[in-house]
Write the structure tokens for this entry.
Amino acid sequence: MRYDFDTPIDRSTTNAEKYTKRPKLFGTHDVIPMWVADMDLPSPPCVIEALQKRLTHPILGYEEMPTTAFEAQMDWIQSRYGFSIQRSMMLLSPSVVASINIAIEAFSAIGDEIIVQPPIYPPFFHSITNRNRKLILNPLKNEKGEYRIDFEDLEAKITPRTKMLLLCSPHNPVGRVWSSQELETLLEITQKQGIVVVSDEVHSDIVWTPHTPLYTLSDRVVTLQGIGKTFNLSGIALSTIIIPNRELREAFGKVYDTFHLGEGNILSHIAFEAAYRGGKAWLEQLLVYIEGNFALLEDLARRYPRCMRFVKPQGTYLAWIDCGNFGEKQLFEGLVKQGLGVSMGHHFGKEGRGFVRLNCALPKSIMQEAIERLESFCRSEKF
Ligand SMILES: Cc1ncc(COP(=O)(O)O)c(C=O)c1O
């Protein structure tokens, strides 16, 4: 079956925040929204059909997540990584960021230190500071567009009060898929100090380089995975927390239970199972499609090397573009003037200054329009 990613879909009849928040963020409706990380592409038809079928039944009372839905994710993991996880290791969450907050409560106390690796998805910062923990920065090293973990700096930053490291794997926004070797080194450094690594792997299916789930390397880790990014189902709000180690699971579970989050909802259960069971071919086609959009951007960056430097990400549908020859204000205003609504790099920490993040999960014709607007920006703005 060929999936149609080419036909643009009007989201104005929905409350898609990527569109509704344009006036607030960009001062106008008149920008192609390339900021928030959801796709302007339709979810797998098998998911939509399963949801429609469920809604032919008129009662939507409390329901339990069926065992078959958990098994769908377990089978997905088995077939992608050749690794078995058990149902008993899995908990459900309506939001990966909520799971991060629970982990912070479970594995640290007020005043303890938690490490993050900027530039980074902004809720990593807020989740730590909102809970009165100390934010410790272990910035990534940018070696000519190739990002690496600074292990020396990491070791130097650890103190007896360091309790947790919040890892983004694959990394939003820089697009790195960490190699198993890098992850092993990270675990070696942190585990000898008793630091719990919480690995946000919500982007782990959108990759062009093999991803290593952290639970395949150690049982003393917390891994967050879900259907939100993979199948464009963020509004369905269901993800999993995978904790193989019983002691860590109990510590997490104690806090988790106090929030009474519930175990997903009827529609999320249906979407979750349908996606993991039937979404493989759709995902394969999607990855090729997004690579095509990145190729357009690579071509533009080759033609305007002083204006933008872009290295195709190893994972995520987010392009992280170095536009450091422009001033921040000039960059933002110039792009809005050309009709582009992007995420500014400094939102991801000061290490992101001079960068923009562009969401490339959209129909090719809109991507081409965005490329034309970027080209006009490069031509019209002076350094
Ligand atoms: C790394 C990362 N984690 C978490 C989220 C959000 O997940 P959720 O909507 O399940 O809280 C995003 C969304 O962009 C993300 O990029």
